Structures are given as C-alpha cells and as structure tokens.
C-alpha cells in the first residue's frame, strides 16, 4: 500500500478522533474519520496489485462468487437505505473475484474489494456457505475495522500526541505500515476477536437479508473448525473466537437474523 497518501495530512487532521457507532450492532469504536478516504484509495491500488500477482479464476465457481457477492452487496445497500444512511456506502467500489490459492481464506478490503480463495470452497460447499464467508468479510469493511485497527494503534503508540496535534508524518507512516503490511501480505491482515465477533453478527444479518438461511452458519463454522484440526490453522480462523463461543453467539443472534430472513421470503 502506498504510504505517501498519508504523509500530507497534518496534525490538525489527525486530531479528529471520534467514537463511531456501528448502525447494525450498536458497538462503539474509536476511528479517525479523516483516514477513511486515504485507506480506501490505497485499498483499491493494493487490490489491483493483488489481482496482477494472482491467478484470477473464471468459470462457474467464479460466477458463484460474483453472484453471492452481489446479493450481499445489495443486502448491505438495502439495510443502510432502510436507516437513512445510504451515503455511508457512496464511496464503495464493489468487486468480487475468485483467486487460485489453496489457503482456506477470503477477505474484503475497505471500500468493498473482495477476494475469495479457491481453498475455502470445499468448506463453503454451496452458495449459502459462501454467503456466510462473504457476509462476514464484507462486514469488516462496513464496520470500519481497518480504520479502527489503525486508530487503536496510533492511540496506543502515541497517546496524547494525537490529541495534542504533535504526531509527525513519519510516526503516522510507521503505524500504517504495521497495520496494513505492504504488498500481498495485506491479505493476511488480522482483526481482534471483538471485531471478528461483530463481523459474525453483521454477516449473519446480511446473508439473511440477501435470502440465505442464517441457520446454516452453524454447520459452516463447524466445517471450518474441522478444517483447522490439522497442524496449521487457516488464516481465516487465526484470531477468531473459540468454536464454542462462536456457536453460542450465533445462536443468540439467530432470532434477529431469522426475522430478516423471513422478511426476505425465507422460511425459518
């Protein structure tokens, strides 16, 4: 990712730290709003670079990824429109691609750039399983988890310097590089367990609004746990809650998700 986008921001801009409330979960998080446009711009550049360095798959499986991604996108737009916040998604440049890679993984960059690796398809099995994954990953972007990660790192490292307007461009660049590794390593960006749990909840709702049965999230995560029983855990699960915690949380979140599913015409 190109750090030079962040070097001309100035201390006054960095001082604009605010507590952001997620409109779907109600969770409050510390995010520096002025970073959003720069993060999105760099994410688009990084995504394009990733596509150049990877084998982009075409064919039936790739079309399924685009189909499910499109439905999750529409679900997000429908929800945000229903609460009068369509403007929150105005800068999104949605894109969904299937990449040839044995990793059991998928990710969504800020701004709606999504990649699914072929290695996860045997675990998703079908459209509904894929909707669990894509709903979860899109939720990371919608919730601003990338911004939150950077903001937390900046406050933890520099504290009052941010509010006091004394943080330097070099300090900002250092934090950004640590939060968003340059090059293909950005695909391995890890979020905290609180963020992962929030993405689970949001993803469950998004897949339901999109017309996919949210109850199928439980067997999907069970399959993911089985896939991680080997010597090396998939990146997709590396910082996620324990299987027991995840299933319990999903069961608690299911009643609301099932309301969305029934409203979308499903029978749950």
From TrEMBL:
One of its GO terms (cellular component) is membrane. It holds the Pfam family Peptidase_M48. One of its GO terms (biological process) is proteolysis involved in protein catabolic process. Binds 1 zinc ion per subunit. It comes from the Bacteria. One of its GO terms (molecular function) is metal ion binding. Residues 85-252 form the Peptidase M48 domain. Keywords: Hydrolase, Metal-binding, Metalloprotease, Protease, Zinc. Its cofactor is Zn(2+). Belongs to the peptidase M48 family. This is Peptidase M48.
């Amino acid at each position: 990712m190109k750090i030079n986008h962040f070097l001309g921001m100035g201390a006054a801009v960095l001082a604009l730290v605010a507590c952001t409330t997620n409109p779907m979960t109600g969770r409050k998080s510390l995010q520096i709003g002025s970073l959003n446009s720069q993060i999105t711009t760099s994410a688009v550049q990084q995504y394009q670079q990733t596509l150049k360095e990877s084998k982009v798959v075409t064919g039936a499986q790739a079309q399924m990824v685009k189909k499910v991604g499109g439905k999750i996108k529409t679900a997000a737009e429908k929800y945000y429109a229903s609460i009068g916040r369509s403007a929150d998604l105005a800068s999104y440049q949605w894109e969904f691609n299937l990449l040839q890679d044995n990793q059991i993984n998928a990710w969504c960059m800020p701004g709606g750039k999504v990649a699914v690796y072929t290695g996860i398809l045997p675990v998703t099995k079908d459209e509904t399983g894929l909707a669990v994954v894509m709903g979860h990953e899109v939720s990371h972007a919608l919730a601003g988890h990338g911004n939150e990660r950077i903001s937390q790192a900046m406050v933890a490292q520099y504290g009052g310097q941010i509010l006091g307007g004394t943080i330097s461009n070099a300090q900002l660049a250092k934090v950004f590089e640590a939060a968003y590794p340059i090059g293909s390593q950005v695909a391995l960006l890890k979020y905290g367990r609180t963020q992962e749990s929030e993405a689970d909840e949001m993803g469950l709702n998004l897949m339901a609004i999109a017309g996919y049965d949210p109850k199928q999230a439980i067997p999907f995560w069970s399959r993911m746990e089985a896939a991680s029983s080997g010597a090396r855990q998939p990146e997709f699960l590396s910082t996620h809650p324990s299987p027991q915690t995840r299933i319990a949380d999903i069961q608690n979140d299911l009643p609301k998700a099932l309301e969305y599913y029934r409203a979308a015409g499903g029978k749950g």
